[in-house]
Design goal:
Number of strands: 13
Helix content: 10-25%
Radius of gyration: 20 Å
Low-confidence stretches: none
Strand content: 25-35%
Structural class: alpha+beta
Oligomer: single chain
Pfam families: DUF1989
Protein name: DUF1989 domain-containing protein
Mean pLDDT: 96
Length: about 290
């Protein structure tokens, strides 16, 4: 949080400094963009090949082959989900929420892509449909599907409350990944990473710049749909905050399951090829 303005003396040119126009850090004019029309055409005649129900306050893993689609669906009531993605053949390559935020903004929707971490830095998935597109940004500056929150975790919970709670999304994702890979939780925990907060409605307060959450607008039947650009291993946690209207990391909030559906198209989108890993030489020369 910024300190109160009256704790320091403003310089005479304070307003002039504030009026300096901003510059976009990462102009994306040269960024290759997905052909959404061909992606949407590939949905015709697709076949559902798998589905996974994620119980409330738990997480489950799922696999999506490159060239397939998957949906995260609200099925019973308003519920937020925390999504992790890894390259199926190498979990060292994982979703990079920070770079995704820098390229696309604080909240994602149709046409935005989920990028992998360095040194790989390639699109892992493309959002192809969002039934909450209509929400936009509300009067509080809030919107849905953010890449600014880090996932609720038991370490912060312990820090702030002094209690231990084992159904935070971080713990849920850790257990799910350990079960999927057949490895100890402590071994896989470092692979759990910052998330896409699916259906979560968030923003920053105008006065203190603090991260806030509010009741998600999601309702049964709403979904967020993705196209897998590479072979993906995913994990989704049905957050213990439910719709995040009051609190998270507790057993107080009303929570609901989420559904993951995987669809195989008859043929890949026209002209599509799976992206290769980033071409930087990695010489890091002086």
């Amino acid at each position: 949080m910024k300190r109160a303005a009256n704790e320091v003396t403003e310089p005479q040119d304070a307003e002039a400094r504030r009026r300096i126009p901003p510059v976009i850090c990462y102009p994306v004019d040269t960024l290759p963009r997905p052909d959404l029309a061909s992606y949407q055409a590939a949905r015709d005649g697709w076949e559902k090949v798998d589905e996974v129900v994620v119980p409330p306050r738990e997480a489950r893993c799922f696999h999506v082959p490159a060239g397939s689609f998957f949906r995260i669906v609200s099925i019973e009531g308003p519920q937020v989900g925390d999504l992790n993605l890894w390259a199926a053949e190498d979990i060292n390559e994982r979703f990079f929420s920070g770079k995704t935020r820098a390229l696309h903004g604080t909240h994602l929707s149709t046409g935005d892509q989920l990028w992998s971490c360095l040194p790989y830095l390639r699109p892992m998935a493309t959002i192809t449909h969002d039934t909450l597109d209509w929400y936009g940004f509300d009067g509080f500056g809030g919107s849905v599907h953010d890449v600014i929150g880090t996932r609720c975790d038991p370490y912060t919970h312990k820090l702030l409350s002094g209690d231990e709670y084992h159904h935070c999304c971080h713990s849920n994702l850790t257990r799910a990944l350990a079960d999927r890979l057949g490895k100890p939780k402590l071994e896989v925990e470092p692979a759990v990473h910052d998330v896409l907060n699916v259906f979560m409605c968030t923003g920053f307060t105008r006065d203190t710049g603090q991260y806030f959450m509010k009741a998600s607008p999601v309702r049964p039947g709403d979904y967020l749909e993705f196209f897998a650009e590479i072979d993906l291993l995913g994990a989704l946690s049905a957050c213990p905050g439910g719709d995040c209207s009051a609190e998270h990391s507790s057993d107080v909030a009303v929570c609901h399951p989420l559904l993951v559906e995987v669809y195989r198209p008859k043929a890949p989108p026209a002209g599509w090829t799976s992206p290769t890993r980033n071409g930087y030489s990695r010489r890091h020369e002086d």
